[in-house]
Amino acid sequence: MSVSVGGVPVGGEALSPVRPGPVRRTRREALRGVFGAAVAVALVPVVAASRPTRSGADPKDTAFDETYRGRRIHGVLKDGWQVTVDGRPLHLMRRADGTWLSMVDHYRSYPTALEATRAAVDELAPGRELREADGPMRQMHMGGDHGVHA
Predict the structure, then answer these.
(1) Of the candidates 121, 82, 87, which has an alpha carbon nearest to the alpha carbon of residue 104?
(2) 93: exposed, middle or buried (C-beta count within 10 Å: 0-12, 13-18, 19+)?
(3) Taken in order 145, 146, 149, 150, is the CA torsion positive or negative?
(4) Among 27, 48, 122, 132, which lies 20 to 30 A Cα-Cα from 14?
């Protein structure tokens, strides 16, 4: 219980008056906040670089060579994925979100290049093979001619 004499509390803590309206900060407090944020932003790359990296990449992340549904799929990561299905090239593209798609199955994306290659094999009909690229523009589009010419 606190007792006040003349508006001043006696025997207890002093009460601070409540100020209505927004809290004002001093210039020094504002600069301290800005400086703290700038230091935090500057330290993020240093902390990220100091984290240990994987010692050597996992071989399955840089190459694959297997038989999938009766077709030999082979891929090597060097300046992008170099992928073949039964010895014929399959063009893979990396999406902005880090997933992969192929020219055969370009409506869906897959987390790894191997999964995108397997999906392309799934889309190929039995007995069908990838077409060979026969010119600079054919390297960009490996599908058939669809009667649309621009």
Answers:
(1) 121
(2) middle
(3) negative
(4) 27
